[in-house]
């Protein structure tokens, strides 16, 4: 009973979060030339978002539908032999999951170069290199899991559930263990880079910087690094779940834990960026009609004004309605 309620809860969250995610990706496309979100970091977030959305849609229409017996007789049980359909269902899910992890690695690498190698960061993330990196993010997993087309079947577990899994249990253990190792290597590299960023951040803090622009830039870089680290945490948790999957034969327990870990991992990117980036949040709220203020704010206002500026239905000329806030703005502009 608890498992059923939990799955319905995940479905409800998906029905709310998936439209939010799609609008978020639309915002990144629409404002891709805007000064505040045209950096390579947001382009990598968009690529990760594509993988996240595919995983969410695919998992609910394939893996979860099969587990709950939806389209059981009409679709899934027609493919109890190795073939294209069950192979594609498993291949696409696994390839996109690896693409998610590659995206997490790219975000960590991007923040590492921005903080630890700032003088060559722009050169390392040129348009050509970005295109190659995003292509490899999806191409490498697609090739690695290609054998799924010849190894996977749809088979009944009980009177309700159907699993999309390997016909041979030994292949199941091999690929799930391989997947756990693949994810563990990425997590290890990310930990090393975030540790280096932490050391560099402490060095920055110990030095006195006279330029307000430089201080502002460093705060922004650290803020984005914090968002990348927040995305990494559920990725690490997911890798732990998949390692457990390589050693357990309890499909029901595995499915419940995988469902939770997969969904949380997929949602993190959009909600973290909306929470951390005022610029993205303003543009998102403007797109859905909940914000009528100016989208292009100068860097000083973005740095000092609180989330009042992104409050729903706030007037463009907020200083006329909120004289106290306007006074605070003047005081901040003369500070330091």
UniProtKB/TrEMBL annotation:
It comes from the Eukaryota. Keywords: Membrane, Transmembrane, Transmembrane helix. SUPFAM superfamilies: Family A G protein-coupled receptor-like. The chain crosses the membrane at residues 6-29, 41-61, 88-108, 129-153, 173-201, 222-244, 256-276. InterPro entries: 7TM_GPCR_serpentine_rcpt_Srv (IPR019426). The keyword Transmembrane helix applies. It holds the Pfam family 7TM_GPCR_Srv. This is G-protein coupled receptors family 1 profile domain-containing protein. It comes from Plectus sambesii.
């Amino acid at each position: 009973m608890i498992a059923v309620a939990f799955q319905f809860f995940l479905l409800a969250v998906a029905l709310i979060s998936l439209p939010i995610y799609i609008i978020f990706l639309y915002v990144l496309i629409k404002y891709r030339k805007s000064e505040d979100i045209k950096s390579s970091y947001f382009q990598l977030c968009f690529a990760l978002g594509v993988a996240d959305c595919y995983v969410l849609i695919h998992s609910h229409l394939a893996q979860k539908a099969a587990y709950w017996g939806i389209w059981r007789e009409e679709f899934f049980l027609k493919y109890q032999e190795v073939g294209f359909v069950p192979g594609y269902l498993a291949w696409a899910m696994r390839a996109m999951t690896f693409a998610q992890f590659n995206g997490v690695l790219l975000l960590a690498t991007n923040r590492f170069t921005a903080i630890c190698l700032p003088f060559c960061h722009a050169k390392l993330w040129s348009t050509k290199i970005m295109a190659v990196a995003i292509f490899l993010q999806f191409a490498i997993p697609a090739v690695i899991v290609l054998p799924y087309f010849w190894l996977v079947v749809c088979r009944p577990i009980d009177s309700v559930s159907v699993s999309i899994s390997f016909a041979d249990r030994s292949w199941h253990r091999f690929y799930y263990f391989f997947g756990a190792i693949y994810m563990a290597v990425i997590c290890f590299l990310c930990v090393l880079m975030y540790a280096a960023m932490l050391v560099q951040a402490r060095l920055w803090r110990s030095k006195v910087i006279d330029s307000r622009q430089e201080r502002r830039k460093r705060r922004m870089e650290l803020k984005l690094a914090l968002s990348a680290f927040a995305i990494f945490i559920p990725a690490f948790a997911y890798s732990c779940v998949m390692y457990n999957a390589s050693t357990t034969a309890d499909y029901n327990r595995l499915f419940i834990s995988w469902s939770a870990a997969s969904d949380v991992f997929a949602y993190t990117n959009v909600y973290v960026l909306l929470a951390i980036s005022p610029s993205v949040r303003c543009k998102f709220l403007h797109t859905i009609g909940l914000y009528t203020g100016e989208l292009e704010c100068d860097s000083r206002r973005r740095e000092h004004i609180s989330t009042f500026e992104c409050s729903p239905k706030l007037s463009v000329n907020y200083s006329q309605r909120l004289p106290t806030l306007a006074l605070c703005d003047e005081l901040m502009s003369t500070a330091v």
